[in-house]
Every structure is written in structure tokens, then in C-alpha cells.
Amino acid sequence: MKKPFTPAYYPAEFAHSFTKLLSIIALFRKGSLPRWIYSVSLLLVLITATTTFGQTPPLTSCDRCVSQDIKVQKVYLADPAGNPLTNTCTPGSTVAAQLCVEFSVTAQARYGLYFAFDYTVGSTTYTRSDCYAQTYNQGPFTLCYPIAYTCGQTVTIRSILLAWGNQRNDLNTFCTPANIAACNNFTPKCYSTQVPLVVEAPLIANFTSTASCQTGQSAQTVAFSGVASGGTPTYSYAWDLNGNGTFETTGQNPTRTYSAPGNYNVTVRVTDSNGLTDVQSYSVSVMACALPVTYTYFRAQPVAEGILVAWQTSLEVNHDHFEVQRSANAIDFKTISSPINTPATAQVNRNVYQYIDNAISESTLYYRLKQVDLSGAVNYSKIISVVSVEESSVMDVSPNPVINQVDIRLRSTRIGPVQIDILDLTGKRWAVSTGNKSDLNYVQTLNTQGLPRGSYIVRVRLGDHYIKKRIVK
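^ that's the sequence the OP posted. Answer follows.
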């Protein structure tokens, strides 16, 4: 193949020539060069730099192209021998490849060919242009150019320009610089597109991960994000997150809380829409979590004004503030308090915080604490529940109105320590009883002879679950 010349655009050459110039000036100042060598070298460098700097970028698009004689069929990555790439590369490694463009000539013989295109590797754009003094008869043709890219990067053709001559005497004249300097010199015998074309590349699986500490966990929670390139979208993902050889979860963005710190072998398997698969494994480091706040207790209970949320801490490290969050389903939480950074009572290693939620709209509510560090990192407490209104399906109180005693019956699958209080509407406790619930049903009797006439609240605490009911004497 005869190639009269290869126009190209190298803006870096000017910087290279300028560097040479500075080196020569430095040698002259040290007295290492005679004056005449300095003068000649300076002149040559200035000529080279001026010529290079004045060069204009090659044409890579033209809006006047209407011919259908030559069309681009596809673009793909190939190995140095011209074979399509396989998916044997490791994400992140450097791959020596060829960027191949396949096109077809649909008309009679064409004489001379100018081919230029812009392409991106990742986020960097490159330009390539060549001119061929060759006859192209009807049929398919492929042109390949060496490139280097990082395995897993996306290679995209940004624009393509093909131009050709249709006369035999064009063979030796078409590729002159003057002829290809302007778009209108070869229209309409050209093909141009500025529609980005994703280069066909092998399917490569990869992932990123972000680790964070959650309250109550001794090791980090890791959020994974699957990243695939090449093949044919869309992609599906399968994961082995603990290195046991079993793909136990799917989806592009799984999360796992690890039980202990250490290095875990994580494997992702990606399948594209054509059924092709790629599997990659990496070691993920999971760190131990230093808990910023240690809770002595965290409770929520009904009071006359609403729900009293209270908690006590025995240790606070780099702590900034708390926020109380509420949910009606234990899944979707909303912050209901302003930042709380001042305890209701403070002692050495014993800070007590309180917040009253008086905007009650559900029978069973769930609460948790959002703890924020000085660095802005966030941790969450355990979730507790409370029944904010009377719940007859769980608790029965009789008789009501009461006289000398009252029977409290609980029907619940919850078991554990039970505390029953009788409170007046100011919150004063008039009676208390404790016990242990070990079965589905639980019955406790309280003496009410000493209660003055009026309205009261029977409040039952079963673990972290609270129930209340109003009675009258």
C-alpha cells in the first residue's frame, strides 16, 4: 500500500521543541557551547517549533457529505494480529490493541482515500488521520490502528470522515495537503458521521466498593457497585461476597455487613444480553469499627404528652449530635427532631438525653437514633417500637371503671421481663408491678384501693415494647 504522506496533529511537539530551546540557552549561559553553534541551533529549533505550532488539526467531519458509495459498517477492538479481543485482560491493566474500522465500497472503483476520526479512551480524546494512494473496488475493507487502553475502559468513536476520488487520475493527486485541507474540496464524495459509536469490545466485569461503620457492628459494612464494559448491554450481576465459592446474591449494588475484620475474596460474575459472561475476583479489606457512642439504654414509652424517647450513653468519642428518627413500618425513617447535643442530665460517663414526640398518628411506631460524628460520619442505633394508643387486641384491662383491683391480661408472642405502671395524667406513678412473660398469655393483678377518683393510664413495658390503656376510677 502506497502512502504519500500521513497528516497528523501533534500539539505536544511545540512543547518538546521549546524544551530543547531552553536546554540550549542553559548550555550557552554556562559557556559550554560556542556562539555559532548556539545561533544555528536556536534558529533550527525556532523553525521546527513554529512549523509544528502552526499546524492545524486534520478534518474529522464534514457536513456536506451526501454520497453513499462508502459506508462504515462497524468498529471493534482487535489484538495486534487483527483477531477480535478476548476478555482475558484484568481490569486496570494496560492492553495493547488495534482499533479497527470496517467499511464497504458499494459503487465502482474509488481512487485514493482520506480517513480521519476522533476517538476517546475513557475521558481522553485522540485524533487520527491517514491518506491512502490506493484503488478501492467494490467490497468490504478494514483499516486498523494501534492503540493502548486500560482494560475495562470504554472506547468510543466520536466522529468519522471518509473521502475519496472517483477518477483514475485522482490516485496520485487526491492525497495532496491542499486537496484535503477543506471540506468542500472533496464533497460530495465523502462519508461523515458525528454520532458517537461505542467500539465493540470484550465483556469485562469489575466492581467498586465503599466501606463504612454502622452502630453496633464490630466490622465494616461494604456497599458494592458492579461495573461492566464491552459486550452487549444490558448486564446482570451475581456475587460471591464472602469467598465461599457460592454466588449468594444478585443485583448491581449489593451490600454486606461482615462479622469480623479481615481480607475477603469477592467475586462478581457479569452476563450480557447475548449470554456472554465474565468473572473477576478481588480481595476486599474489611476494617474493625470503633464505635463512637456506647449506649447504656435506648427506650421509648408513652407519656401524657406523647412518646418519651430517652437514651443514656456511657462513652462518647468524637461525637457531635443526635437526631431522633421515626417510622411507621420500621423501614422508612424520617428525622423528627432538631440536632440534640445537650444531655438532659450529665454525669461522668453517664449522659441522659430525652425527646418527646407529640405528633402521633400511628398505633405502633418505631424509633431509632441517628448519631453524627465531628467528621460528619453517621451511625444508627438499634430500632425500638412503642404502641402510642390503646391496643385492645394485645392488652385487656378489667374491670374498667376499677374499684379495688384491676386485672391486666397480655396476649402477645413477645416474651421477657414485664413492668406494669399505673400513672395519673401528670405522669405520677401510683402503682407498679414486675414479672416475667414466658407464654403467649400473661395476667397480672394490681391493687387500686389507694387511687383517688379520676383518670389513669396503665402502661405496660415488655422488653422495648410499650403498650398503654386508659382506665377510670
